[in-house]
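Dissemination and training. As part of the outreach component of the grant, students in the summer workshop were shown how a complex can be specified as a set of sequence lines and then modelled as a single object. The example used during the hands-on session is reproduced here so that future cohorts can follow it. Participants entered these lines:
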Amino acid sequence: MTTQQLRPIVSVFPIKGKVKTIKQVPLPSVFSAPIRPDVVRFVHTNMAKNNRQAHAVSTTAGEQTSATSWGTGRAVARIPRVKGSGTGRSGQAAFGNMCRGGRMYAPKKVWRKWHRKINTNQKRYAVCSAIAATAVTPLVMSRGHRVNKLPELPLVVSDQLQSLTKTRQAVKFLKFIGAYRDVEKVIRTKKTRVGQGKYRNRRHVLRKGPMVVYARNLGIKKAFRNIPGVETASVYTLNLLKLAPGSQMGRFIIWTESAFKLLEDIYGSWEKPSKFKSGFYLPRPVMVNTDVERIIKSDQVQTVLRNRRPRSRKYGKKIQRADPYEDMSVMVKLNPYYKTKLQKQKELEEKNKKERKEIVDKSRKEYEDWLYFSEEEEEEEEEEEEEGSDEDREIEVLSDEN
Amino acid sequence: MSKQVPETIKKQKKRSFNSKEVKQEKNEKRTKLLKEIQEKAYKRAEKYEKEYLEQDQKLKELKQKALKEGSFYREPEPKLAFIIRIRGIVGVPPKPRKILQLLRLRRIYSGVFIRLNKSSLRMLHFIDPYVTWGYPDVETVRALIYKRGHARVNHQRKIIDSNEMIYDKLQKYDIVCMEDLVHEIFTVGKNFKHANSFLWAFKLKPPVGGFSTVKKSFVNKGEHGNREQYINTLVKKMI
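and obtained this result:
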């Protein structure tokens, strides 16, 4: 919210001589009012309805017959038909909106709501917006005004303008200040109206040229009256329909110095109310600083932001992984002790194997030893038995011979 | 003509949370942390191997001792069970359906670890016809977690890629690596609940060689219900 203690300066130009600054005045607060095209559009569309004149269709139109339906059974539509005979009109359909010469559907009535009430504050909001827009060169240009040659926008001119009486003087002034190009445009583009307005006393269509806003009418009104496209207005009674014609903001306005200064009093500021509109303060914008990008990039905001969430790569993508029981590298990553474990197991196995082998070898050897020794004993026994029997037999043979 | 860098961009670069220096610092920290984790993992794995061996030995000794004295050694009742759902979705009555949901057994051949206590045993009783369960040994628990272990991370099912994943989630329960996780599950430690909920329900394959008949209980030459230590052979066929 700008407190407007340091307001920008606007130059005041003379009405003849040389185009140079003769004075400087501060910019009234109105020109910093929020520019709200939506509000202006709403107010304008409703305000524009307020100068309408009632019109309607005659109440009796299409009803001035005594037609009755023929009913069914006559091979004709059941629409009411004109009674009687002897004329072409008899038997013709009547009354219906579809019938020739019948009453229209929903005949227009004068008691249609022609005018619209608009909240006073809304109206004032729209006017403030529209005035603010007249200082914005791109808006004025986009509205179609030829403002290239102007020394400044908003264009403020000395109060001597208010005392002009002759049209010639007025035109000279416009040419001097560079505003005549806009008037030339208006003259150039004067056309016959399209449509039936042309024979309803609205034959020609003109563009809107510059608007001259004055504080006191000392002849200015008449001076500018006949210049095509140019409108004059008192600063006390600025009309939205003129400030934003067609609800398009950015009318080219030429202010007189006193009118310009009066704007501060008429519309007030955010601190001081208007002197003329009781209790009215300038509308407050929703955002004071609309440069959002700059706000976000400012130090004050950036230092308080939290860290940008990291693109957690670890949990982002679907991770493929080999079977740890088949791929040793995966296993070791998960269990770094695994290799050592395998080693130990291997060692243990080998140890066990060795021990077992020793035991087996030992027992085998024992068995073989036992087997060997038992064979020897048997042989010895057999030999002893054989020797004994031979001796006995020899003795018996000797005894028989005697 | 030298290019003028706008001040806002200069400031932005200096301030940037993703600037080179900050990234470098982060990376250094991370690599250091990873190294620490792997060291811990090594030491703990070693410790646990010893522990498991000792436990086995102890059990053997106690049994032998009892035998010598002519009495029995009553082993401690199993604390851990592994449940596998062996029946599909269709036609499950509401109570077993709810219990299966609570146990995270939402599809056929899904498996979960569960701590055995009076309440959980009663739950198992209700869902007996739809599951088979038993007491897994260390190697089964290991195989499940290593081969088919997926973590629940950010409401997503992510395969356990590294110990860092486990560290991030379970560091506060002093579970820092795979072996820690296995140990916590197998011995049903203080933080079993957190270790178990860290794991997504295991999605197993249908068993190699098939089932005999799921309609009968294991005791009756079927497949469902408690099959105590034979769960280990089944898991080997399904893993």
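The mean pLDDT of chain A is 90. Students were then asked to discuss how this feature might be tested experimentally.
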